[in-house]
Design goal:
The structure is a single chain. The chain has 360 residues and is α+β, with helices and mostly antiparallel strands. It has a domain of 39 residues. Helix content is 41%, strand content 17%. The protein has a 5-stranded antiparallel beta sheet with strand order 4-8-7-6-5. The protein is globular. The two termini are 29 Å apart. It binds a DNA duplex (13 and 12 nucleotides) through helix 5, helix 10 and helix 11.
Length: 360
DNA sequence: GGCCAGGCGCGAC
DNA sequence: GTCGCGCATGGC
């Protein structure tokens, strides 16, 4: 056995072998039909700096709420993350948000934007949610007051879909690690301010691999679901003549929900709707929301029932109404600081999982 | 070591 | 349509 080169440990797609050392797709012992993918290839990025304003906006609540998996607060106080193929450092002082970005322009399903416009769009800094509080609802009044500056980030739909399929019945830090793993081996590297970031893999990259591959890497029973969902989306991408605007992504989200075995049930579908498809009236019902609905409102029953109750009650802003309650309930009942976005933002401890490696 | 984690899918009714 | 159970894996 030649120790100098990586070894294949299996075939996980048509003619696709994967190195057991770096887990990347590599040309290994001349047995693969795929071109070599050099995991060390990292593009050095420039730095674009500036500032946007965010009145009535809280960066920490927004990026620390648990919605996004590829952001974290570093020990130096900056929020660092990668979105739409661009790495960012962000920090808020008052209503000003300083940014450093790895690119001048960012491509999204809504078109290409300058980095400043992108951040306003991505963070929704210019949109104030209007959640009305029924007179007697003291929980919601308190929650809204504490979390007023929170926004739903406009996540990349593909990343959001795969991420929430992976999130099923797993702790968030574990999900973050799995997502970072995928990016690390199948994404593109960006060297930014001395840190290595990895873009979220493209649909083709994920769909090249079958469920055995993800299972090998301990994704458990999410394995076949990730493979199926990625395959479905890669096929849609090939079939679709139109460009991938929001309407197309909404169709794809619906398709995944209807596709049994894709890993997208009611809860994940609502997360996708709310976090990436601009449906701010969607309410994902998870284990926290279920407990909260019972403890605070006496509402019990199936998740579908609780969902219908919450969406009816909240109307067009139901997503925010639920998020306030969800975050406040978790603040009061969470077991760790990472469950408690308000407490976490008051400390200076870094996030448990950060989306980059320090270059060395 | 047992319980649970931001559920889903499938088979019984 | 809805209810109950099995499902991998890791953290606490």
């Amino acid at each position: 056995m030649n120790r100098k080169f990586p070894h294949c440990f299996g075939t996980f797609g048509p003619g696709l072998e994967v190195c057991r050392v770096c887990y990347a797709r590599v040309q290994c012992q001349d047995r693969t039909t795929r071109p070599r993918r050099d995991r060390q290839q990292v593009v050095q990025a420039g730095v674009w700096e500036g500032e946007i304003t965010g009145p009535d906006f809280e960066l920490g609540h927004t990026l620390g709420s648990g919605q996004v998996f590829r952001w974290g607060r570093d020990a130096d106080g900056w929020w660092k993350g990668i979105a739409y193929g661009t790495a960012f450092h962000l920090r808020q002082k008052g209503d000003r948000i300083a940014f450093k970005a790895s690119a001048e322009g960012v491509k999204t399903y809504a078109g290409e934007m300058g980095v400043r416009d992108f951040l306003v769009w991505y963070l929704r800094t210019d949109e104030a949610p209007r959640v009305r509080v029924p007179r007697q609802d003291r929980h919601l009044r308190k929650a809204r007051g504490l979390l007023r500056g929170l926004r739903f980030v406009r996540q990349d739909p593909f990343e959001c879909m795969i991420s929430y399929i992976l999130s099923v019945q797993a702790h968030m830090n574990l999900t973050k690690r799995r997502i970072n793993f995928l990016a690390r081996i199948l994404g593109e590297g960006i060297l930014f301010l001395g840190e290595r970031y990895w873009t979220f893999p493209r649909p083709e990259a994920l769909s090249d691999l079958n469920g055995d591959y993800y299972r090998r890497h301990k994704f458990g029973w999410r394995s076949e679901r990730v493979a199926m969902a990625a395959r479905y989306m890669a096929e849609q991408l090939e079939d679709m003549d139109r460009s991938w605007d929001l309407g197309v992504w909404q169709e794809v989200g619906q398709g995944l929900y209807e596709l049994s075995g894709s890993g997208v049930g009611l809860k994940v579908a609502k997360c996708i709707d709310l976090f990436s498809l601009d449906r701010l009236d969607a309410v994902p019902v998870d284990t926290w929301v279920r407990k909260m609905a019972k403890d605070w409102y006496g509402v019990t029953g199936s998740d579908a029932k609780i969902c219908a109750w919450a969406e009816e009650r909240g109307g067009k802003w139901a997503g925010y109404m639920n998020e306030y309650l969800f975050a406040y309930y978790r603040e009061l009942n969470g077991q760790t600081i990472y469950d408690q976005v308000l407490s976490f933002c008051e400390t200076e401890i870094p996030s448990a999982e950060l989306p980059f490696e320090t270059s060395g």
